[in-house]
Amino acid sequence: MSYVDLQSALREWCYDPEQISVRKILGADGEVRLQMRIELGIIQMETEGRADGTRPHGCSSLLQYHRKRLATYTERNGTSLGFEITPEECCELRTEASLYYRRYIALFVLEEFDSVTVDTTHSLDIFDLCRDYAEEPEDRAGLEPFRSYVLMMDARARAYHALAEDEPSSALAHINRGILNLRNHFESLGDYESVENSEEMKMLHSLASDLAYQMPQDSLVVTRKALRSAIENEHFEEAARLRDELQTLLEPESH
Could you tell me the pTM of the whole model? Predict the structure, then answer.
């Protein structure tokens, strides 16, 4: 077995600590792959399935494998009650989530936002699976600290994709939905301080404000709908923010 010194490739593509460096390459087999330059080398990822190209248990992902297990268990028992994921399996799922994290960051840099949401959805589904079925309490809670970040990235990617399709009203709707999802997440943890002060929430509020100045008149419909939803769900602080946003959108009509 021969080994290849990567030094020439690393010199050709220098590491820049100030930015995330990502590129697409055409593999020897003709397949497109992603590469990310990190401090100690280059990471290469597949564009579909698991980023490492493996098929655990013959499935496209561990998530798919455990979902099949869950479906079989539920069909056999008439309920999912009693279905459990072991600590070792949770560890494997966390590793898979980290693979999808690396790839959706790379895809976000490349502005392939529709692909970003495929991977953020996969990650959130892993979070849900561990939260609902892990044997041990620490595994049920293990991924929850990262949920807010993934929710934020998912909302941003959906909004940017909508903007690329020239649908600013949809973009604002995605951001407002992301804000509500974040609020629900923090409140479920009893972390009420993060509802207003988390970096993820600040990012989405800032983006919502930026979008408000770009909105056509039909954005009034979107914002009013989000306001009604916030009031119905008793998210009164969010409702107050949406009222302010609505007032901003109505200001041009008053002049």
Answer: 0.81
